[in-house]
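Q: Convert this sequence to structure tokens.
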Amino acid sequence: MPRIPYVDPQAVSDPEIRGYLERARREGTPRPESQAIRAHNPNVIRAFSQAWELTFHQGVLDHTVKELCRGGSRRWASVTARRAEARRGGHAVRVVDVHVHVVVPELVGEGPWRAQVHWEDGRGVVVWRGQRVQSAVREFADPDAVVEGVGRTGADGVVLSPWVCMLPCEEQDVGLAGEVCEAWNEGLARVCARCPGRAWAFGAAPLQDPARAARVVEDVRRRPGLVGVEVPASVGGRALGDDFFLPFWEAADALGLAVFVHPTGSGLGVRALGDYYLWNTVGNPVETAVTAAHMVLSGLLERYARLTVILPHGGGALPALRGRLRHAHGFQPLARSRLRGDVDACLRRFFYDTVTHDAVLLRQLVEWAGPGQVVLGSDWPFDMGLEDPVGFVRSAGLGAETEPRVLGENAVRILGLEVRDAHG
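A:
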């Protein structure tokens, strides 16, 4: 059966219909993809949108019925449980999503390192330096709308991070790379200032010049709302355990600043990963595993005991490789040339997000890494993200003690967050 095409808002002449589409794109609800299909019949999208407005914004229905309609019984169970606060030791549980990407207005438009952003067939399209990326299915170029949209998934707080493709990791002009990172940091700090107690961010640092990156990290530490930096899994062909980056790691360790390591999406130069979306489903987790294993066996985590490093996508392929890494380190001179301590102890130094797409895998990750080492993530706004990240964690059956830690307590602890009381 052929797929029904999405209606492009730019192709709609009726300002009312175009307004419904733009609002869905901006706020994330109703789902932009669904609205883009309803728009084939103006009467359908008009009737639905007006009913939605009455239901959710003008208070026609009781609040509990609104929540049920917003996400179905599963999401309602999740939101209800969250708002019941699941109190442990008299302290309210807060939900914090640490894996949310945005593009800030400072990097949209014409000029070097700026992107053009528009929507096609219900998907966000970024055109940047010849690349055309269309994997976003939710708002991402309006950071304030992103904060609101993530809030509707059940999160009390959100930690924003740059779209990794727009980090200047391969830029040869170090001065330009520094300017780009400054634009990211300034833009993200402005968002955090507008949403105190609800939004924080990982900034950017020009790792191709580690000494300059160390100075930028010091500046990031001084900016309210910025709680760390996002770095690509490789820079200039170097994995992050390379001694080249030691000035950066030394600064991050000394300042106690978190580092969010994200794969570049490059496909690792493997031709087969260009097929069947494998650059994303396989390439990204493998890229994370390569650089994380490099960091472990290089002795980096052993050298810098205060480092806080967060790995996305449940650590990618890294957890599945722990046995091989442990075995090699036990006998192979190359594998044990730098790391003197225990491989598993270093692997458990990482923090892992929950974007595993498999509740059994998530439960196993928590059991292996420890309940204090896993943090909530959604990978908003991308198609490989979790639409209901809170519900997904709850579906893993982590238990009354562990679940609140994963949903938010761990993030609050390691990032030093003060989450606004959203419930009065």
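Residues 9-60 form one domain.
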